Amino acid sequence: MQSFVDIFKIPELRRRVLFTLGILAIYRVGANVPIPGMNAEALQQLFEQQSGTLLGFLDIFSGGALSRLAIFSLGIMPYINASIIMSLLQGAHVIPYLDRLAKEGDTGRKKINQLTRYFTLLLAGIQSFGFTTLLMRMPIGNVPVVKDPSLLFIITTVLTLTAGCVFVMWLGEQVTEMGVGNGISLIIFTGIVEGLPRAVKNMVVDVFQLQERTILGASVLLVFILIVMGLVVWVETGQRKIPVQYAKRVVGRKMYGGASTFLPLKVDQSGVIAVIFAISLLSVPVTFASFAQGSAWADKINTIWNQGAWWYYMVYASLIVFFCYFYNSVQFNPTDMAENLKKWGGFIPGIRPGEPTAAYIQRVLERITLGGALFVAALAVLPDYLRRVFNAPFFFGGTSILIVVGVALDTVGQLESHLIMRHYDGFMKQGRVKGRWFNVGGS
Length: 443
Hints:
Elements: H1 2-7, H2 11-30, H3 40-49, H4 54-61, H5 65-68, H6 77-92, H7 96-102, H8 106-136, H9 151-178, H10 183-193, H11 196-208, H12 215-236, E1 239-246, E2 249-251, E3 254-256, E4 260-266, H13 273-289, H14 296-304, H15 310-331, H16 334-343, E5 346-347, H17 355-380, H18 382-390, H19 398-421
Antiparallel strand pairs: 1-4, 1-5, 2-3
């Protein structure tokens, strides 16, 4: 507790923390301001029916803003989709212009971020139009969700949702620049945690008032959640340490090197980004199907893209594994690492410098990534089985726990680094918090 008190003793860190909390408060206010012209009861009933589908899943990520059709209903998903597409184009070397920008250092990265923002604007307009037309064509019984489905309503709603998405993206970038933690991940974190008190309350009501759940069943569910959280922390902080030896060298009259250290490789380098990327891609077919709601091909897509079907989970898990490896290929270059080791006189014992070292690092990285990717994929499909076996709320699902725990570790790790840099103690008496900086779109 003393370490948390020390946070507010440092003027700069106090300012960063208060700024972050203020931005998140603004986001929560916007997530609760509904767009006029909606039948709130019918809309709420619609999302209650869609609670186990992808639409309900996206509502969790928006912090309930989607079910209220608030001005921040789209959340940050269009920006993540734009970041995915830009990363894929860079990794596949499809557009030479992007390759040139990637090699220009900080200037090129800023230009790529600017293009990503423009692309976000385009995707936000498409998704907002699709979601608006979807609500206009989905009545609840004989009660329409939209009171007056006129052209003015469509234009107003699309412009509002698009502007809200761009504003949320700007809020996230401000937190990353002037706050604590990564703004994009904290916004997603806030949307998930927002529903946690309500889920706990419903659990208490089910046990002690409605008696739909026994105390033993609730205790087993709680123990299971704690075990899953422990596994998430274990995997997210797990490392493979490759020993590195530095040869002695003489510079002038001084001798340098001769030290032994290690090269840490994370078991799960991508963290929660692979899960969020997979979810974003899974929402694309539903978005396009919403443009022609009621048509034969749209109904077929909605039928095939059923979240309870086994092939949906197969595609979901495959995308997570793919993005885990793809993230490593974009963010981690074994060849550059081997060249830097050789440049500074470092080598891995038993491995020759240069290409053999790069091949060895690549081989180790591929093996440990497989274990981390399979764990994350298994954790992502856990919510459905929790609902079937324990009748658990969606907030207790594996994906939510993975994102919440991962972002919490990153934020606490950055807070601790600020404290240690200013000669304060960390949050633990022994060791340090092992966080991971979750980065989307290079922001």
